[in-house]
Structures
1.
Amino acid sequence: MTASDTSSDAVAEAPAYCVHCGQPSPGGADHDACHNPRTALEPPRFCVVCARRMVVQVTPVGWTARCSRHGETASG
């Protein structure tokens, strides 16, 4: 097993976090406020893998969100 194998295993086993509040999604947090029509249009603010606050840039044609550890995500 190489170092890259262990890092990919760690990412695969990491819990998923809410992109709007940063709390663990499958756990005890109440996410009703995070899943409504208004937040459906909002860009993600937290990384889904590590819950770090992301750098978000909103433009007239979409948005980009960048995690310092996991890279960039863009609107469709």
2.
Amino acid sequence: MTITMYGITNCDTIKKARVWLESHDVAYRFHDYRVEGLGADRLDGWSGNVGWEILLNKASTTFRELSDTDRLSLDENKAKALMLAKPTMIKRPVLDLGDRILVGFKPDVYQQAVGGLK
């Protein structure tokens, strides 16, 4: 199984998650969606898996810079369009395990999900 981590290189949470994976000898591929992009099909799959509300990082600088109108009148289609246009609004990291995804980084969740994959 190939594990793929999605995010952006300079994110502190991504750095912590990468250190955790590497220190636990978990092989993974890193996909920087600032460089490699992110397709609508993949975002739709994630949204169907965990919900757009989980994926949208309302604490991100990019989200906070939106107009009040954009922030307050969100629905699934608008949120997906915003995340595709500005992927930094996606909560990081997204860890694709093949059969499921994990959003965000919590060491105990990573341990439970990938600890036995080594």
